[in-house]
Design goal:
The protein is an alpha+beta fold. It contains 4 helices and 3 strands, in the order H-E-H-H-E-H-E.
Length: about 120
């Protein structure tokens, strides 16, 4: 009797497994989108309080030196519309809680500081 040929079969999985994996991916994607939404809301609150949020691209255009070489967000968050933040300047009089919240929300930022209300400009 001839031996049956062993044919290579493609990886197989059940429909239940596919649905479980798709659910896990959807949950992960939802958490990433929620993070991006929270970061955008934080930027809007900072701008409403007369602070500034400087993105990495803006920092390079302004000629600011970025001390950290890895000032970025993961590539999938960039695909979803998030931007890396280089610096956060909060309005004068901001509470330490706001500084801590900004540091937590933008961990890639080189500096999170409170702006000086009377910046000194050198006289020539």
């Amino acid at each position: 009797m001839p031996q049956p040929k062993h044919t290579r079969r493609w990886f197989q999985f059940s429909l239940r497994t596919m649905f479980a994996l798709m659910t896990l991916v959807a949950l992960w994607l939802a958490s990433e989108l929620a993070t991006i939404r929270e970061r955008r809301q934080m930027r809007e609150r900072i701008h409403a309080d007369f602070g500034t949020v400087i993105n990495v691209s803006e920092a390079r255009e302004l000629g600011l030196s970025l001390e950290k070489q890895s000032v970025s967000v993961p590539f999938w968050r960039r695909w979803l519309g998030d931007e890396a933040v280089a610096e956060v300047d909060l309005a004068f009089g901001s509470l330490d809680e706001k500084v801590t919240a900004a540091q937590k929300m933008f961990p890639e930022a080189v500096e999170v500081l409170i702006a000086d209300p009377f910046p000194t400009v050198p006289l020539n």
